[in-house]
Amino acid sequence: MRLLTALLFSLLSLSAFAQPVRLDGNTLDGQRFSLDALRGKVVMLFFWNTDCAPCIQKMPELRANAAGWRGKPFELVLVSTDHDRAAALAYLQTLKAIDKTGPAMPALWAGDLKFTAPLVAPAAVPLTLVIDAKGAIVARHAGRIAPEAWDDVAGLLP
């Protein structure tokens, strides 16, 4: 899986930010997913895995902010880089059982997806990408989600 992930992703360069991002596949619950379908919305892509303590610690913040922006043109998309699809699925099912009123958000597994440049495998997670309504990456935040990531999203929303 590590090799597959490395092949699916590549490092982001500043010159790649202006290119529209393509991401297609299935969600962990089997629904078709295409980032193209979210054009017109600000999207936060959050790359994570179940072995990443900071990733798991940030899930409540992610869900709370996504809930706070209900009704806005915003979508939070979770992309698990776990080696095992089942680990990501089990964690997210537990999370939904604990917080039944939380926002619905696409949850994806990297092994089920087709990526097109400029997306690349992060060397480490968490990695947060902010994508504007035209589909271009406008910000990249490696490590814990910084307040600036939320500022980036808020600055793009009407």
Could you characterize the architecture of this molecule?
Helices cover 30% and strands 28% of the residues. The chain has a single domain, classed as 3-Layer(aba) Sandwich (Glutaredoxin), CATH 3.40.30.10. It has 158 residues and is an alpha/beta fold. The protein is globular and about 35 Å long.
Fold-level CATH name? Glutaredoxin
Helix content: 25-40%
Helix/sheet category: alpha/beta
What would CATH call the class?
Alpha Beta
Tell me the name of the CATH homologous superfamily: Glutaredoxin
Query: pLDDT under 50 segments (min length 5)?
Result: 1-17
- Main β-sheet, spatial strand arrangement: 2-1-5-4-3-6-7
Shape descriptor? globular
- Termini Cα gap: 39 Å
For the CA atoms, what is the radius of gyration?
A: 14 Å
CATH architecture: 3-Layer(aba) Sandwich
Mean pLDDT: 85
The H/E string reads HEEEHEHEEEH
How many helices does DSSP assign?
Answer: 4
The total strand number stands at: 7
Please summarize the sheet with the most strands.
Answer: 7 strands, mixed
Q: Which percent range describes the beta-strand content?
A: 25-35%
Structural domain count: 1
Helices and strands, with pairings:
Blueprint lengths: L1 H7 L13 E6 L4 E3 L7 E7 L4 H16 L5 E7 L4 H14 L8 E10 L10 E5 L5 E6 L4 H10 L2
Parallel strand pairs: 3-4, 4-5
Antiparallel strand pairs: 1-2, 1-5, 3-6, 6-7
